[in-house]
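Hello,

I think I submitted the heme C job twice by accident. Can you confirm which output corresponds to this input? Input:
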Amino acid sequence: MRSALMLSVLGSCALLAGCGQGGGEKSAGSASAPAAEHEPTAAEKQAVLDSLPAPYNTADIDNGKMKFAMCRSCHTIVEGGANLTGPNLHGVFGRKAGALENYKYSEAVKNAGFVWDAEHLDKWLAEPRTFLPGTKMSFAGLKAEKDRIDLIAFLKVETGYKAP
Ligand code: HEC
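Support: Only one job matched these inputs. Its output is below.
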């Protein structure tokens, strides 16, 4: 009688241990979730877009993405992305111009002395070489204002911008 009880206790311990392990696997699974959080969900991206002031909050992100094709050969936007011909643009909003340690800027950008925001980026993208003479960014400029708005909104959503 006693030993049967012992066995069943042992048995349930073994079962519990088994359950514990299962739980362990589960929490290991959720522990890897923070890594996935780096890639925001569609809902989170939409929330960033909604948080922007007009006219950016109603921008056409798909058009912005299409316009970014013009930048992609020189710029990455993902967190920790490589510097190509141009610097990685993750976190560019709120960052001082020319501030990445591991990228060699022109004096023009390094000494620009402003922090990137939508207004500065709009002027920069319209005509980089007029806005900061001496820049080494060889990009003629994006003439259509609507395209710049869409591209800036796309960049805000994709480069980890958070509303202050
Ligand atoms: C032919 C390559 C090239 C293309 C195309 C290009 N860029 Fe650049 N970009 C550069 C280079 C080079 C720099 C560094 C400029 C300097 O130091 O004078 C730069 C700098 C920048 C910076 C300043 C970053 C900082 O850390 O201060 C921004 C913002 C930027 N580019 C955005 C864009 C966007 C948006 C596009 C697309 C519309 C674009 N660039 C297209 C090469 C390019």
